[in-house]
Structures are given as C-alpha cells and as structure tokens.
Amino acid sequence: MVNKPMSAATPSFAFPSPQVEILPRPPLVMRRPLALLDGRAYAAAWLDVRITHPPAPDSKGRSGAPARVVEEKRLFILRDDGICFGDGAGEPLTSLPVTLQLSETPPPQRCWSAEGVAAFRQGHRPLPLDIFARLTSVLDTFLDFQRSLADQRTMTELLATYALATWLLDAFHVIGYLWPNGDRGCGKTQCLLLMAEVCHLGLVVQGGASFATLRDMADCGATLAFDDAENLASAARTDPDKRTLLLAGNRRGSVVSLKEPVGKGRWQTRLVNTFCPRLFSAIRLPDPVLASRTLVVPMARTTDRRRANAEPLDFSFRPCHRRTLVDDLWALAVTALPAFAAGGYEARAAAQARFSGRELEPWRALLAVVLWLDDHDSLGSLRRPHPGQEALPQRHSWWSEPPDAGVGLFTRLEALSWRYQEERPQLENDDLTRLVVRSLCGCAVRASVADGAADSPPASGCHPAPDRAAGHDRGPGRCQRRRLERARHPGLAAPRGPRAGPTTPAPCTARRRAREPAV
Predict the structure, then answer these.
(1) What is the pLDDT of residues 448-487, one digit of tens each?
(2) Contact 217, 105 (CB under 8 A)
(3) 312-317 — which CB contacts under 8 Å span 24+ positions?
(4) SS3 for 381?
(5) Type and span of the H or E element at 267
(6) Which of 171, 314, 476, 490 falls between 20 and 30 A from 86, CA-CA?
(7) What are the C-alpha distances in Å from 438 to residues 2, 16, 444?
(8) Taken in order 80, 85, 37, 214, is the CA torsion positive or negative?
(9) Rounded distance, CA 413 to CA 150, Å?
(10) Nearest-10 Cα torsion for 219, 221, 225, 231
(11) Environment class of residue 96 by beta-carbon count within 10 Å: exposed (0-12), middle (13-18) or buried (19+)?
C-alpha cells in the first residue's frame, strides 16, 4: 500500500468586520478647565494623590519586598450636580460623557484645591452676593479710584463684576478688555496683580513672553494681564503674531490657525481658540482699534497712605482668605454657569442698555452679570439711594407711600457706561479724524445757536450780532481773494480792469508793436 502525501490545507479564519455607525452629532469635547457643554458645566481639578502599589510576589509566591508608594498629580472632573469623576472619586473618568482634551495644566495657585473640592462634594454652594461682597472688599482694600470714572464704591463694583464675568466666560458671545491708565506710581500694576489673583486663571504677562505661551494660555481660557503694554499699543514695535492674538480674542469663535509638525516631514493645521479676557496696564492710551474693545480706567496717584503701602501679594493683609475665595469662585462658576446661560442675561442686558453696536460690546458681559446679581438681591443689599436723597427730610409716619429703596446695581453701572461713552473722546486722542469731525460738529452747533440768538431783539445800547446768512461776515474781501488766487495759481493772468492815470503797455505788447510795419 502506497501512502500518498496529504496536502496541508491552510485553515481560513473569518474575522468579524468592524461596524460603522454614523453619529447624529459630534461628541462633546472638553478643551478648557471650565467649560459649558450641552447645558452642563464641568470643571477640572488637578489634585495630589498617593498611590500605593502592593509588592509583587516572587517565583515562589512570596512577597517580601515592601509596598511601593508614589505621589503624583491626577486629573479629576467635577460636574455642576456635585459628581466627581476620577480614580478614587467614586466615578471613573471612563464614565464621563465628554471627551477630555486638556493640553495645559494651569499653575497650582489658580486651580481648585483639595479642600475646596471636598467641600463642594459635601454640598457647599457659595452665594453670588457673598462672593461679590468679598471681591469688592478686596479691591477696595488695595485700590484707590479718586478722580476716576466714578466714586470709589462704583469703581470697585465695576472691577468685581468684570472678575465674575471671567468665570462665566462660556455664557458670553463677546467680552471687553480693561485698560488701567495713568502716570507712574498711580497703581496700574497693583490693579493688574490684584485682578489676576481673583480672575479665572489670571496670569500676569511681561513683555518677554513668547507667542507659544500666550497661545496655549488663551486656548485654556485664562485671563491674560499684560503689564507695561506701551509696546503693544504700537503696531510697528509689536510682534505681528502677538498683536493678532490680542485683537482677535474678544468674540466667541475667534481662532488663530497654526501649522504644527507631526512626525517626520508632516504638518497639520491647529486652530487655537483665542476667546479669553485680557487686561492691560500702560501709561499710553490704546490705539483706536484696541480702544474700541477696551474700557479705559483712569487712575491717579493715591493720597491714602494705607492703600499706597498695601501689597497685593501679601495675603495676610486681605480682608478674606485668598485660598477660600478662589475655591468658592470655582464652585460658584461650575454651579451657576448652566442657569446663567439659560437665563439669557446677555440678551436682556443688550435690550435694556441705552446704546448699541460697537459701543455696547465692551459692556455686554458686565451688564449681564449685573442683571444676574440684581436678580439674586432679594433683600436689596445692592441698592443705593438716589444722589442727594440722603439730604432729604424724613417722611412723616402717616405717609402711606413706602420710602424709595434706591436704584439697583444695573442702573448705576448702566449710567456709568453712558457717561463713559460721553467722555470717551477725551480718552481717544490718537484718533485725530474723529476728533476733527466732532470739533466741526461742535462749531456748527455753536453757529446755529448764535444764529438763533441773532433773531431775538437786541438790548438797548447793544448792536445786533452779524448775520452770516445775510452776508455781513463774508471773510476776506475781493482784492484779498484775488491775491490768494494768484498765489495758488501763478500762471493765472492778472485781472483786467479800469485803471486811473496813464497806463504802460505790457512788455510783450511793446515788442509786438515794434515789429509791425509803419503805415
């Protein structure tokens, strides 16, 4: 019997084919430490953890080596309902309904601390008016706004409102910039340092900061505070990339496109989100383009010895604990963001403001936060009496009408914004064309007022004002006008007219007559 070799048959395995499903919408991506996604607010916290690794057994199953302990920082995500996602926090990061793409880790002093996260998980929710009162007291301790846009309390309320607006950035479509302006020693840098401490991820930027640093911090939504911004006000002495980043960040959806290397010889396009708050301090005023998006805050050298010697970075001098204030700001932001965005405060502020368009843009976020604070002021703690009402006599006991409780915070700051628009030409001396046009309009108004006064009968002994419409004020005379015309056009022939006495013919006429034959 002959054994025939058997052909080895190669077994074929059928691998399951991947299933492709079209999603109805793109997945939610969290790219900033504080974000509002699909009506829910999320906040990132980088906390220190201690990880204990059990000893690994040897080949015989014995574990004689000690346990290995590692301390490191890990990312945790907190939601507005108090749920914390992360290893050891109850819910793992894999159960988070959003995708994390957080490229940068903010400075530890600006992040949410472990004590604040623990208090938030236990149900601690700060009140908006309490946070606002603490912010106002901190600003009033260090800053003096004499000879500024308004009184001391109104100016501290304005800056405290802007600080709250930086924490609610995801609920706005446009935000303005602040520009503390004044001479040397007026407290501009002090104001900038203090605002960076209470604003969302505040970072004081010096002139030598690189474009890559500013780009990454703007992508995180940090508040960029530029000290000594004189060079930024000049387009000739500013880095074009930095200036593009500064001018393209006051509106939602503003991006800067960059090319980044990926591997060897490959490049990809990256869109950097530049929508973030910005503050500037400089002796000079901003250029017209930047001034249209900026609120200039005039400051003068203080005469208050206590405020002049106060150091913003001396936390023991503050009226409230700094770490507790920052933790409460994180808790307030992640709790209030959904309700604030759903309340439509930005649209309400735009509808109630007296101006519109480009002039309203720097004030939209401020007025929206003010409306939100007024809605929480059920006891009227933010209301102040009308100017001069303190001097009025008290009403009788039989008076049936309740006393006037004063005006709210929105009325005061909206009136401040209106006065700011009226005084804005004094803060824009670089725009010469606008100043010339406004000066001509003022001259025309004064001329019309003078014409109206000329129509009234003059008093005895007084001569009536010259009527320009009747030709009494016609400017230069006829001879003077001719001399001016000949000076402008030298080739123009001299005007002909009757002359008294004998005349001498022109030289060209005498030469022509000499060439003519005698008759």
Answers:
(1) 766 665 555 444 444 444 444 444 444 445 555 566 566 5
(2) no
(3) 312/142, 312/190, 312/193, 312/194, 312/197, 313/193, 313/197, 317/141
(4) coil
(5) strand 267-273
(6) 171
(7) 116, 76, 10
(8) positive
(9) 10
(10) 30
(11) middle
Strand-pair partners of 204: 225
| Contact present, 446 and 453 (Cβ < 8 Å) | no
Spatial strand order in the sheet of 34-37: 34-37, 40-53, 68-79, 84-85
439 C-beta neighbours (distance < 10 Å), count: 11
Cβ pair 264, 332 in contact under 8 A: no
pLDDT (mean) for 347-356: 91
Tokens at 222, concatenated: 């940090």
**Which own/partner pairs from 118-127 qualify as long-range (CB within 8 Å, at least 24 positions apart)?**
119/327, 119/331, 120/78, 120/82, 120/327, 120/330, 120/331, 120/334, 121/78, 121/82, 121/84, 123/82, 124/331, 125/331, 125/332, 125/335, 126/328, 126/331, 126/332, 127/376
- pLDDT per position as a tens digit, 379-392: 888 988 755 444 33
**Token output for 60:** 């015989």
Question: Is it the case that residue 76 has pLDDT exceeding 90?
Answer: yes
Q: Which residues contact 326 (CB under 8 A, 6 or more apart)?
A: 109, 110, 112, 113, 116, 198
Neighbouring-strand partners of residue 69? 52
Identify the band that residue 304 occupies on the pLDDT scale cut at 50, 70 and 90: confident
In angstroms, the first-to-last Cα distance of the chain is 158
Residue 489 CA to residue 242 CA, distance in Å, equals: 50
Q: Which residues contact 239 (CB under 8 A, 6 or more apart)?
A: 211
Among the ranges given (73-87, 301-315, 463-477), the one the predictor scored with the smallest mean pLDDT: 463-477
SS3 annotation, 136-166: HHHHHHHCCCCCCCCCHHHHHHHHHHHHHHH
Backbone angles phi, psi at 480, to 5 degrees: -65, -35
In angstroms, the CA 131 to CA 129 distance is 5
**3-class DSSP state of 256:** strand
- Residue-level length of the chain: 519
Q: 113 φ, ψ to 5°? A: -85, 170
Read off the pTM.
0.76
Interval 134-193: pLDDT, tens: 999 999 999 999 889 899 999 999 999 999 999 999 999 999 999 999 888 888 999 999
